[in-house]
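Might you be able to consider the sequence and fold that I enclose below?
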Amino acid sequence: MIRLLVTLVVSLLACTPGQTDPMHQRDEIHLRATVQNVVPLTEFSGKITPVDFDPRFALTVRIESVDAAVGSFTVGAGVAFGIHSPALLFGEDATKGKTYNFSLQRVTKHGKTRFFGLKVEKVQTAPAMSVPS
């Protein structure tokens, strides 16, 4: 009985949030990128970085800036993300040539890296100030 209790306590401590597991790392990447193209995945040929569990479209972007260079995510690089839907990601149609701020989750577990959760960051702008005449 005591052995079972000790095993349970050790297991709970191993799963405590906030502890760093060197075999499992998770972080968030922020990048600014210009949309080059959005096409159905069936019409795309090339390397895709899946960022959704059910990718149906290829979103090709050119990276303008990134908070930390990660693999092929470097300034000036072209990257194709496998996304589920442009409407879900952008809230509207993606505009070719428009630059967006994105955030992306990355998890590395046992030496394998997976990306997910690509989001367009909404830029907050201050309301226009009216100038008295």
In short: Strands lie at 24-40, 49-50, 57-66, 78-83, 99-109, 112-120. The CA atoms of residues 25 and 108 lie 5 Å apart. Residues 3-19 have pLDDT under 50 and may be disordered.
